[in-house]
């Protein structure tokens, strides 16, 4: 399977309605006959050039666009740029079609103008032949994908080329990523990209530069940055204490308290911290003070074990691993990290 870029802005008033019907088109109507197609498929370059000399008296560079178009293979993917958008199509025919083979009784141009055929060309209402010579039968996989939202810099740049078509096999990853983003409705967003690319660097710095006390201070700083009115460390000899919380963050305006275990560890964290914060939260919920109370476990570790995940799911405890916490820090603002820990 190959990837191609192909423009259909030539005779746009008809080429786009034809695309909606599953036909990708190109001009060069002077060469509309089956022998021409057959010779190209036989790789007869001399015949191909000779036809241009005979019909046009010259051999233009633009002929390469026609050669490539006729040589598209079944299964190839074609990106079709439009105004601010693009289509993704798949070639489904075995060989190119003459333009007359795209005709149907309901074929109309933009503006609802009727199209007819004389058996060789498609004809406008005023009797003039449209300069479309050949077509490929395609399946439209995706249509009207926003360039701004879903095409990365490489694909966007390539869609600006002036020639009619060209190979874009080197952009396979960009194309597949753009399609995936479109399917998942995940527009390209610079902030998100920076967070994704930077989070691992932040986590690595946390693991190598901090210790348990400094990590706990970082968590407290995070809560203050996102608007906690009060961030405290519960006394270790707290009366009637059950379980344990390293940090208590109070958000007065929304009547919310977050009890947090902060675990500076590596690898996979076990369920001990999850059980501790669950017991602490359960004990505090008996106090009727009008606050909603939730429990978090924040760690520098990579993952939680299955038992911790199970306890958290059953008791609505938020488990935050090292990478996710790094993203939260970045989203809260880079100035947060400019603090003495």
From TrEMBL:
Residues 209-329 form the Restriction endonuclease type IV Mrr domain. InterPro entries: Restrct_endonuc-II-like (IPR011335), Restrct_endonuc_IV_Mrr (IPR007560), tRNA_endonuc-like_dom_sf (IPR011856). One of its GO terms (molecular function) is endonuclease activity. GO terms for biological process: DNA restriction-modification system. Transmembrane segments: none annotated. SUPFAM superfamilies: Restriction endonuclease-like. The keyword Secreted does not apply. Keywords: Endonuclease, Hydrolase, Nuclease. This is Restriction endonuclease. It comes from Cyclobacterium lianum.
């Amino acid at each position: 399977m190959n990837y191609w870029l192909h423009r259909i802005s030539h005779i746009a008033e008809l080429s786009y309605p034809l695309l909606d019907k599953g036909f990708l088109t190109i001009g060069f109507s002077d060469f509309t006959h089956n022998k021409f197609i057959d010779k190209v498929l036989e790789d007869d370059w001399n015949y191909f050039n000779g036809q241009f000399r005979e019909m046009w008296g010259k051999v233009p560079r633009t002929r390469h666009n026609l050669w490539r178009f006729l040589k598209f293979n079944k299964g190839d993917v074609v990106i079709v740029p439009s105004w601010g958008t693009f289509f993704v199509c798949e070639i489904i025919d075995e060989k190119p079609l003459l333009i007359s083979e795209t005709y149907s009784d309901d074929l109309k141009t933009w503006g609802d103008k009727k199209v007819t055929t004389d058996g060789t060309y498609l004809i406008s209402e005023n009797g003039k032949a449209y300069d479309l010579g050949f077509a490929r039968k395609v399946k439209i996989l995706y249509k009207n994908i926003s360039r701004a939202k879903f095409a990365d810099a490489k694909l966007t740049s390539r869609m600006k080329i002036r020639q009619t078509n060209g190979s874009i096999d080197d952009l396979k990853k960009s194309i597949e990523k753009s399609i995936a983003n479109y399917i998942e409705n995940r527009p390209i967003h610079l902030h998100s990209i920076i967070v994704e690319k930077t989070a691992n660097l932040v986590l690595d710095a946390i693991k190598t530069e901090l210790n348990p006390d400094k990590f706990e201070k970082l968590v407290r700083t995070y809560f203050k940055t996102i608007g906690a009115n009060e961030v405290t460390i519960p006394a270790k000899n707290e009366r009637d204490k059950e379980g344990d919380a390293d940090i208590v963050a109070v958000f007065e305006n929304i009547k919310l308290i977050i009890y947090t275990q902060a675990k500076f560890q590596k690898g996979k964290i076990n369920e001990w911290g999850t059980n501790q914060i669950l017991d602490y939260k359960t004990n505090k919920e008996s106090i009727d003070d009008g606050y909603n109370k939730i429990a978090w476990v924040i760690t520098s570790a990579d993952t939680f074990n299955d038992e911790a995940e199970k306890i958290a799911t059953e008791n609505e405890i938020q488990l935050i691993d090292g990478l996710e916490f790094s993203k939260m820090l970045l989203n809260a603002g880079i100035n947060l990290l400019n603090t003495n820990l």
